[in-house]
Amino acid sequence: MQTEAAKEGKVYEALPGLMFRVKINGLETEVLAHLAGKMKMHNIRVLPGDRVLVELSPDGEKGRIVRRL
């Protein structure tokens, strides 16, 4: 279930500090996203190639990974 601010994407690069480069489906953009607090708390692993749900910032350049699909 997607909200207006959340978009589905695919992780294609893992960076230090729990940051990821995510390619958003349907858009030709990539965003720099960090892991949401609940995902850190429950030790949910995200690897390159995983499908994720990303909440985007208003400018659309940064985001927060809120769910692994």
Write the layout of secondary structure elements.
Layout: E1 6-15, E2 19-24, E3 30-35, H1 37-41, E4 51-56, E5 62-68
Concise synopsis of the structure shown:
This protein is mainly beta and 69 residues long.
Task: Please describe what this structure looks like.
With 69 residues, this protein is mainly beta. It has a single domain (6-68), classed as Beta Barrel (OB fold (Dihydrolipoamide Acetyltransferase, E2P)). It contains 1 helix and 5 strands; from the N terminus they run E-E-E-H-E-E. Strand 2 and strand 3 form a beta hairpin. The longest helix is centred in the middle third of the chain and has 5 residues, at 37-41. The model has no long low-confidence stretch (mean pLDDT 90).
